[in-house]
Protein backbone atom coordinates (compact mmCIF):
# COMPACT_ATOMS: atom_id res chain seq x y z
CA UNK A 1 0.00 0.00 0.00
CA UNK A 2 3.00 2.28 0.36
CA UNK A 3 4.74 3.33 -2.81
CA UNK A 4 8.52 3.24 -2.68
CA UNK A 5 10.78 4.71 -5.32
CA UNK A 6 12.71 1.91 -7.01
CA UNK A 7 15.73 4.18 -6.88
CA UNK A 8 15.83 3.77 -3.10
CA UNK A 9 14.60 0.18 -2.96
CA UNK A 10 16.72 -2.83 -2.06
CA UNK A 11 17.87 -5.15 -4.87
CA UNK A 12 15.24 -7.67 -3.72
CA UNK A 13 12.43 -5.11 -3.81
CA UNK A 14 13.54 -3.98 -7.28
CA UNK A 15 13.57 -7.61 -8.50
CA UNK A 16 10.05 -8.20 -7.17
CA UNK A 17 8.78 -4.99 -8.81
CA UNK A 18 10.39 -5.89 -12.14
CA UNK A 19 8.95 -9.41 -12.02
CA UNK A 20 5.48 -7.97 -11.42
CA UNK A 21 5.90 -5.71 -14.44
CA UNK A 22 7.30 -8.45 -16.66
CA UNK A 23 4.54 -10.93 -15.89
CA UNK A 24 1.96 -8.28 -16.77
CA UNK A 25 3.46 -7.48 -20.18
CA UNK A 26 1.49 -8.38 -23.27
CA UNK A 27 3.05 -10.96 -25.51
CA UNK A 28 3.12 -14.68 -25.88
CA UNK A 29 6.75 -15.35 -24.90
CA UNK A 30 8.55 -14.29 -21.73
CA UNK A 31 12.27 -15.01 -21.25
CA UNK A 32 13.67 -14.50 -17.74
CA UNK A 33 17.33 -14.78 -16.81
CA UNK A 34 17.76 -15.82 -13.18
CA UNK A 35 14.57 -14.26 -11.81
CA UNK A 36 15.42 -15.66 -8.38
CA UNK A 37 18.43 -13.37 -7.94
CA UNK A 38 18.11 -11.12 -4.87
CA UNK A 39 14.82 -12.67 -3.71
CA UNK A 40 14.30 -15.11 -0.87
CA UNK A 41 12.93 -18.66 -1.00
CA UNK A 42 9.70 -17.60 0.72
CA UNK A 43 8.93 -15.19 -2.15
CA UNK A 44 9.94 -17.81 -4.71
CA UNK A 45 7.60 -20.39 -3.16
CA UNK A 46 4.66 -18.15 -2.33
CA UNK A 47 4.64 -15.73 -5.25
CA UNK A 48 7.01 -16.55 -8.09
CA UNK A 49 6.12 -20.25 -8.48
CA UNK A 50 2.32 -19.70 -8.29
CA UNK A 51 2.66 -16.87 -10.81
CA UNK A 52 4.71 -19.13 -13.11
CA UNK A 53 1.98 -21.79 -12.94
CA UNK A 54 -0.68 -19.19 -13.78
CA UNK A 55 1.27 -17.48 -16.57
CA UNK A 56 2.42 -20.66 -18.30
CA UNK A 57 -1.19 -21.33 -19.25
CA UNK A 58 -1.24 -18.19 -21.40
CA UNK A 59 2.42 -17.58 -22.33
CA UNK A 60 5.51 -19.49 -23.32
CA UNK A 61 7.88 -19.07 -20.38
CA UNK A 62 11.61 -19.62 -20.73
CA UNK A 63 13.80 -19.40 -17.63
CA UNK A 64 17.52 -19.44 -17.07
CA UNK A 65 17.90 -20.43 -13.44
CA UNK A 66 20.31 -21.89 -10.92
CA UNK A 67 17.53 -22.50 -8.40
CA UNK A 68 15.87 -25.92 -8.56
CA UNK A 69 12.75 -24.54 -6.83
CA UNK A 70 11.98 -22.40 -9.87
CA UNK A 71 12.42 -25.33 -12.25
CA UNK A 72 10.86 -28.14 -10.24
CA UNK A 73 8.04 -26.41 -8.37
CA UNK A 74 7.18 -24.31 -11.41
CA UNK A 75 6.32 -27.64 -13.10
CA UNK A 76 8.63 -27.20 -16.07
CA UNK A 77 7.75 -29.34 -19.08
CA UNK A 78 11.21 -29.30 -20.56
CA UNK A 79 14.64 -28.85 -18.99
CA UNK A 80 17.59 -27.75 -21.07
CA UNK A 81 20.93 -28.19 -19.33
CA UNK A 82 23.80 -26.11 -20.66
CA UNK A 83 27.49 -26.78 -20.01
CA UNK A 84 30.44 -24.71 -21.12
CA UNK A 85 33.53 -26.92 -21.24
CA UNK A 86 35.70 -25.73 -24.13
CA UNK A 87 32.45 -25.40 -26.10
CA UNK A 88 28.82 -24.86 -25.18
CA UNK A 89 26.80 -28.08 -25.07
CA UNK A 90 23.05 -28.44 -24.61
CA UNK A 91 21.13 -31.42 -23.29
CA UNK A 92 17.36 -31.68 -23.33
CA UNK A 93 15.52 -33.53 -20.53
CA UNK A 94 11.89 -34.44 -19.86
CA UNK A 95 10.86 -35.23 -16.28
CA UNK A 96 8.51 -37.98 -17.54
CA UNK A 97 11.41 -40.09 -18.86
CA UNK A 98 13.04 -42.35 -16.26
CA UNK A 99 16.59 -41.87 -17.60
CA UNK A 100 16.09 -38.11 -17.77
CA UNK A 101 14.70 -38.10 -14.23
CA UNK A 102 17.88 -39.75 -12.94
CA UNK A 103 20.02 -37.07 -14.60
CA UNK A 104 17.75 -34.26 -13.39
CA UNK A 105 18.07 -35.49 -9.79
CA UNK A 106 21.82 -35.03 -10.16
CA UNK A 107 21.57 -31.63 -11.85
CA UNK A 108 18.78 -30.09 -9.75
CA UNK A 109 19.13 -31.82 -6.41
CA UNK A 110 22.85 -32.61 -6.15
CA UNK A 111 22.43 -36.34 -6.82
CA UNK A 112 20.64 -39.29 -5.23
CA UNK A 113 22.51 -39.00 -1.93
CA UNK A 114 21.55 -35.34 -1.45
CA UNK A 115 18.00 -35.98 -2.61
CA UNK A 116 17.68 -38.97 -0.25
CA UNK A 117 19.17 -36.97 2.63
CA UNK A 118 16.58 -34.19 2.15
CA UNK A 119 13.90 -36.85 1.96
CA UNK A 120 14.99 -38.31 5.32
CA UNK A 121 15.34 -34.91 7.00
CA UNK A 122 12.10 -33.35 5.80
CA UNK A 123 9.89 -36.34 5.04
CA UNK A 124 8.47 -36.70 8.54
CA UNK A 125 7.45 -33.04 8.65
CA UNK A 126 5.21 -33.37 5.61
CA UNK A 127 3.30 -36.37 6.92
CA UNK A 128 2.35 -39.53 5.11
CA UNK A 129 -0.81 -38.10 3.52
CA UNK A 130 1.26 -35.51 1.63
CA UNK A 131 4.58 -37.25 1.33
CA UNK A 132 3.89 -40.97 1.16
CA UNK A 133 5.21 -43.65 3.48
CA UNK A 134 8.92 -43.90 4.31
Major sheet description: 2 strands, parallel
Q: Write the element-wise H/E pattern from the N-terminal end onward.
A: HEHEHEEHHH
Termini separation (Å)?
45 Å
What share of the residues lie within helices?
A: 40-55%
Instruction: Report the radius of gyration as a whole number of Å.
Output: 17 Å
Give a description of the structure.
The longest helix is centred in the middle third of the chain and has 15 residues, at 41-55. The strands form two sheets. The protein has a two-stranded parallel ribbon with strand order 1-2. The protein is of the alpha+beta class. The chain has six helices and four strands; from the N terminus they run αβαβαββααα. Strand 1 (29-33), helix 2 and strand 2 form a beta-alpha-beta unit. Mean pLDDT is 84; it is low at 130-134. The radius of gyration is 17 Å and the shape is globular.
Keywords:
134 residues, alpha+beta, 6 helices, 49% helix
Strand and helix map with partners:
Elements: H1 11-23, E1 29-33, H2 41-55, E2 60-64, H3 68-73, E3 79-85, E4 87-93, H4 98-109, H5 112-126, H6 128-131
Parallel strand pairs: 1-2
Antiparallel strand pairs: 3-4
Brief overview:
With 134 residues, this protein is α+β, with helices and mostly antiparallel strands. The chain is built from 6 helices and 4 strands. The strands form 2 sheets. Strands 1-2 form a two-stranded parallel sheet. Strands 3-4 form a two-stranded antiparallel sheet.
Amino acid sequence: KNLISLTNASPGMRSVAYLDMLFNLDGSILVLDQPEDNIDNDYISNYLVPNIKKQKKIKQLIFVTHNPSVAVYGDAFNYIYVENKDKIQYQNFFIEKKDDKERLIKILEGGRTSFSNRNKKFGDILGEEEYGSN
